[in-house]
Design a protein that fits this description.
By secondary structure, the chain is α/β, with parallel strands linked by helices. Helices cover 49% and strands 12% of the residues. It has nine helices and five strands; from the N terminus they run E-H-E-H-H-H-H-E-E-H-H-H-E-H. The protein has a five-stranded parallel sheet with strand order 2-3-1-4-5, with helices on both faces. 28% of the residues are buried. Keywords: ATP-binding, Coenzyme A biosynthesis, Cytoplasm, Kinase, Nucleotide-binding, Transferase.
Length: 207
């Protein structure tokens, strides 16, 4: 009788805005690792026709909907970043739905380990579902510079996002591994490959 393959262990991958966590995740995926993105799960649970979107519109009003019925993220973001109580209301609604979506997606993994990418891995408590944590770290000035180049947003909004995200120090306290991404994409990919080969030697995420 064949023994069933062991269940993949879960690596939590996180980093502040503009740290390069998405680029790192893409390279892990290119190496054949099953990657689940918490941001994608968060988008999926508020798609038109899903119950969460109707509840958000009922609570905040139709101003948070676009003409086509999709969620207007920037309108919602403006409301919740200026009001911690509204942000807590939204998190209480969405976090359990996102958690279920992530768990269902991770359960489909066929690779030796799977990755949960989340900007709020530490803050949301999602790290408790992982066996190991990789933090993509970058100096804050570089995070802001990269985000300004990438997104059509203001430095003020980036600073507001940085305030909501865990501090670098807090993230690094939780980290099993740290990848400092202060160079170019090639250097990042080389580090990802090095970590990938190391992770393939682990059982359950621990040496």
């Amino acid at each position: 009788m064949n023994t069933p393959p062991s269940k993949p262990w879960i690596l939590g991958l996180t980093g502040g805005i503009g740290s390069g966590k998405s680029a790192a995740a893409h390279h892990f995926a290119a190496l054949g690792v099953h990657v689940v993105d918490a941001d994608h799960a968060a988008r999926w649970v508020v798609e038109p026709g899903r119950p969460a979107l109707a509840k958000i519109a009922a609570h905040f009003g139709d101003g948070v909907l676009q003409a086509d019925g999709q969620l207007d993220r920037s309108a919602l973001r403006a409301l919740i970043f200026s009001d911690p109580e509204q942000r807590r209301w939204l998190e209480a609604l969405l976090h359990p739905l996102i958690r279920d979506e992530i768990a269902n997606n991770l359960a489909q993994a066929q690779s030796p380990y799977a990755i949960l990418v989340s900007p709020l891995l530490i803050e949301s408590g999602q790290y408790s579902t992982t066996q190991r944590i990789l933090v993509i770290d970058a100096p804050q000035a570089l995070q802001v510079q990269r985000t300004l180049l990438r997104d059509n947003t203001s430095e003020q909004q980036i600073q507001a996002i940085l305030k909501v995200q865990a501090s670098r120090e807090e993230r690094l306290l939780h980290a099993d591994d740290v990848l400092v991404n202060d160079s170019d994409l090639k250097a990042l990919q080389t580090e990802v490959e090095r970590l990938h080969h190391f992770y393939l030697t682990l059982r359950g995420g621990q040496p």
